[in-house]
Amino acid sequence: MLARALLGGGQSLAATVAAAVAAGTGTGTGCLLLRRFACSETNDLKKTLSDLVPQQQERLRRLKKDHGSRALREVTVDMVLGGMRGLPGMLWETSLLDPEEGIRFRGLSIPELQARLPTAVPGGQPIPEGLLWLLLTGQVPTPEQAASVSEELRHRGHVPPSVLRVLDAMPPGTHPMTQLSVGVMTLQSGSHFAAAYRRGVPKSRHWQAVYEDSMDLIAKLPQLAAIIYRRTYKGGQFVVPSSSLDWAANMVHMMGYQDPGCLEMMRMYQTIHSDHEGGNVSAHTTHLVGSALSDPYLSYAAGMNGLAGPLHGLANQEVLRWLKDLTAKLGPNPDKEAVRKYVEDTLASGKVVPGYGHAVLRKTDPRYTCQRDFASRYMPEYPLFKLVSNLYEVVPEVLGKTGKIKNPWPNVDAHSGVLLQYYGITEENFYTVLFGVSRALGVLAQGVWSRALGLPIERPKSLTMSELEQMVAQQQKREQQQQGAHNGRGDAPAAADSAVAATPATS
Ligand SMILES: CC(C)(COP(=O)(O)OP(=O)(O)OC[C@H]1O[C@@H](n2cnc3c(N)ncnc32)[C@H](O)[C@@H]1OP(=O)(O)O)[C@@H](O)C(=O)NCCC(=O)NCCS
Known about the structure:
This protein has 2 domains: 2-75 and 112-312 and 429-452, Orthogonal Bundle (Citrate Synthase, domain 1), CATH 1.10.580.10; 315-426, CATH 1.10.230.10. Helix content is 57%, strand content 2%. It is built from 21 helices and 2 strands. A two-stranded antiparallel sheet has the order 1-2. A hairpin with a 3-residue loop joins strand 1 (95-98) and strand 2 (102-105). The protein is globular and about 80 Å long. The N and C termini lie far apart (50 Å). It binds coenzyme A.
């Protein structure tokens, strides 16, 4: 029996959405048309997708047929050695990241999501179910469409007892992210896609089984996360799910929290952490593993193992540890000079300052700004919020002075822990699980499209250092010959081209 204790109930989403519509804070009765996607009249998400898939398949076919051999940009040695920074190498439909402006989800910025997606309370934060509709279809849903996703996720949300038995068999103290990965792997035995593939379902219908798995998994993640939280930190006293709360609020409820501010915070948190285009470690890993036709459970669990790295999702845990250490050493209200010295000491010890820097962004992360706005509204006097605000005044300057850090500004992880701490969710080792639940929305929505578009198995070309050296030497030789030929003719020398063309994969 999963439910060892029963706490509280919840408000009806239908009632709150209706109130939001009445107050004029929803999106009205019609969906908002984005890009090439026509609005759907139905509340059935899978039916909406079924109508969109053939159009998008045709769009991809044309792009490939008409422009497949067109070059987009050069491949430099730095790109090969530098973790493929800036190298376009995959199709990702659900979001796009601009280094200066930040993330856009199907073309919408975070403030635009907040203004346009359906909410659970009037003027409140978007519900992630609306975002899921947007990510999957490219359409801003009506409140009724978002509410139907909430309903569908509630119906699919039950986590079988076998998962708890498997988690209970793990060593005490197992990190919550390991528990998340193992929990997801335990659910994998129910994969519709794995069964469909075994039955020989044709490739054109793969996406439908992937959709079923993705919706099942997204639905179950809040309860799985709550089980991990309650068994790790609350003595295994579980809370049964609400039959009326929306997806993110229900997770908070099952974790044992009821504060309406906490529910709103989690709706916002789950919305903004969902997707950050395709190249980040968790998204790319999920995509890569899925390209081998591993089912959504296998590919998402792989992505979560990447999210558990301290340079990626685990940074939110590391930020809290770093802040706690800072407060223990300097007290709750340190002056700027003391903070500056602490940051310098962190760098001098060879550690990174968690929550700062980014591989793509070159400005303050709008996900940081969104959380800062939330804190300014709900917890302006909270000391930890003030400390994080003070860090914003000091850290970028110190990081900038090193001369090597490309982006000294804060990222999403610099702020999320403050919000969780304020509402009493103080166990920082759990924070990356909350990030991971949200990330499912983006990577699984894209996974559905990857199968709908029939994207092939990923297989980039790798090179040895010897091969790179030879390629560079050959290129230099060609440049010298060209220069000699131009000099002989008295022409101006050709501009040196330092790019090395990548050779196609041979296997
Ligand atoms: C996110 C991150 C991994 C991006 O790495 P990147 O793309 O290699 O970043 P850069 O090109 O700016 O790195 C150049 C150098 O600055 C260092 N650097 C970058 N951010 C740093 C930070 N916050 N603190 C200390 N050093 C940092 C890098 O480690 C690298 O050092 P090296 O040349 O000695 O190896 C990096 O900024 C980082 O480690 N940040 C802290 C962890 C974090 O917040 N992660 C969550 C990201 S959403």
